[in-house]
Specification:
The structure holds 2 protein chains of 2 kinds. Chain A is mostly beta strands. Chain A contains 3 helices and 8 strands. Chain A has a 5-stranded antiparallel beta sheet with strand order 6-5-4-7-8. In chain A, strands 2-1-3 form a 3-stranded antiparallel beta sheet. Chain A is globular and about 45 Å long.
């Protein structure tokens, strides 16, 4: 069930909370406590905007256990506008073709379900094409 | 002063779905074959390279399990786990044990048993080799990750999609004469082109098949070999390991296999050679894109150019068996099969066959020095060894 494990990650999963290095200003997601840029301690929380673009993407047809109901699904590397790259599923794609460079924004979705309908559901970030900015 | 470490014995099982054999039985087959090949040397220490037994066979503690089953109760024995590089890491542990003088005879045994579980459970186990909290939770699989790298590679370097065909074609051609290979059938460029998509842009032939297998290498010092040792002698000239970020997304440049590069640099420094002085490079072709990125990381090609080494021109491709830098000489991961945490030990067995001149139809005529490299995931760990013929 791993309830406490998913609970510990709630800030990252629901709000893209990473860190900013107080020494060299590097933005870090996921949080890692030691800055890979300057090697010093980095524990200052920093909330990312959730905006970015597709760095690469592919489709998973044979999903791991727990992900069957979404398959096939698109998984991508997203380059956040603050710099870091994250691994995340793309969602709400409709008929829109995905390309490297497509602008995307974070949304909260169901990631996986353990066991039957009474199993724990894990929510977290996915990314969708950046509709808001297109409309504006 | 480090002792010179020689290969006293080698053993392997065929790589396939061994429905009728258990983890311990597979391990024993390879172990016994290596002991017999050495003329009966008894290992004092056993390093078991394995990644999935706790998840797929519900069995941890493989050191005691296999030492016990092999009638070696009492010896030192331990599992070495480094994801897909577990076999290479076990070989390094055995090498260090003998080189340091702590142990006279050490065995590296790689063993993996996938086929006790099928389908989504295997994919879930595979995903644990990456970052569970930030990669696997998103439904990312190792195959999808390789596809992400391949798409980015095609985009950044403007490479024709068909350029990757050369790697599985060469691997399959080399697997035809390997009795331990899972696939012993050559494939054509047309077959590659028509293969079904696994995770776009990866097709079926860009992905090495996972299967069961065990391989063993017995190491010792030359002065401890039996008097009538029947094989040409090969030594381990260098052993090295390097790590990179566990998660692919944490790298400033995902297309650089930095750990692969570092481990090659360290191994070459220890062996006092440059990479161009190796006669064979047995690389980690779990995916065709990994073969390309490994060739570039080792310095055999510029960034974005590695795919050219598998293209046929007036001469055979550079990395074909008749080229100047053969890879996958007994089929590689693609045709021999990918036995997970055992793969790195298979590479050592195959390198030893080449250095002894015992590779038959696949013998590379000038094999005096072989570099083998075993990766975990997208080179999150990289283990490199350089083996040399001694006479």
């Amino acid at each position: 069930m791993e309830i406490s494990r998913h609970w510990r990650l709630r800030k990252q999963r629901y709000a893209l909370v990473g860190e900013v290095c107080p020494h060299c200003e590097a933005k870090l997601f996921p949080p890692r406590d030691i800055c890979p840029e300057c090697g010093q301690e980095a524990r200052t929380l920093y909330q990312f905007s959730g905006r970015g673009e597709v760095y690469s993407y592919t489709t998973v047809y044979e999903p791991p256990a727990g992900y069957e109901e979404n398959a096939p699904y698109t998984v991508a590397l997203i380059k956040l506008e603050e710099g870091p790259i994250v691994t995340a599923q793309l969602t709400d794609l409709g008929d829109q073709p995905v390309e490297i460079g497509t602008p995307v924004e974070m949304v909260t979705r169901r990631l996986r379900q353990d066991g039957d309908e009474r199993g724990m559901i894990v929510y977290g970030y996915k990314f969708r094409p950046a509709l808001a900015r297109v409309a504006a | 002063m480090m002792s010179e470490v020689v290969i006293a014995g080698i053993g392997q099982t065929p790589v396939e779905e061994h429905w009728d054999k258990s983890l311990r039985e597979l391990g024993l087959m390879a172990l016994e074959a290596a002991v017999q090949d050495s003329g009966g040397l008894r290992p004092q220490a056993l390093y078991v390279g394995n990644m999935f037994a706790p998840q797929l066979s519900r069995q941890a503690h493989l050191g005691a399990l296999i030492a016990d089953f092999a009638g070696l109760t009492g010896i030192e024995a331990v599992t070495i786990e480094a994801g897909g590089a577990s076999g290479g890491a076990a070989l390094r542990a055995a090498y260090l044990a003998v080189a340091s003088g702590a142990v006279d005879v050490a065995m590296a045994l790689g063993v993996e048993k996938f086929s006790d579980v099928i389908g989504a459970e295997v994919d879930a186990a595979l995903a644990t080799g990456g970052d569970s909290d930030y990669e696997a939770v998103q439904g990312l699989t190792p195959t999808a990750q390789a596809a992400l790298l391949m798409r980015r590679y095609l985009y950044e370097y403007d490479v024709p999609r068909q350029a990757f065909a050369g790697f599985p074609i060469i691997a399959h051609a080399n697997g035809v004469h390997n009795p331990n290979a899972m696939f012993r059938k050559a494939i054509s460029a047309e077959v590659y082109q028509q293969a079904s998509v696994v995770s776009d842009p990866l097709n079926l032939f860009d992905v090495a098949p996972l299967a069961d297998g065990a391989a063993a290498v017995l190491l010792t010092r030359a002065d401890l070999l039996p008097p009538a040792f029947p094989h040409r002698l090969a030594r381990i000239a260098a052993s090295s390991m390097a790590t990179d970020t566990l998660a692919l997304h944490d790298r400033p440049d995902p297309l650089e296999f930095r750990a692969a590069r570092l481990s090659v640099e360290r191994a070459c420094e220890k062996a006092r050679i440059v990479p161009a002085q190796v006669d064979i490079f047995e690389l980690h072709d779990a995916y065709s894109i990994y073969a390309v990125l490994s060739l570039e990381a080792a310095g055999f090609a510029e960034r974005g150019q590695g795919w050219k080494l598998a293209q046929n021109g007036a001469e055979p491709a550079v990395v074909s068996l008749r080229g100047s830098l053969p890879i996958s000489v007994l089929g590689g991961f693609k045709a021999r099969g990918n036995p997970g945490g055992a793969a790195g030990v298979y590479q050592a067995v195959e390198a030893a066959l080449q250095l002894r001149g015992e590779a038959r139809e696949n013998q590379s005529p000038h094999a005096r020095r072989v570099m083998i490299q075993n990766l975990a995931g997208p080179a999150s760990s990289a283990v490199t060894h350089i083996l040399e013929a001694l006479d």
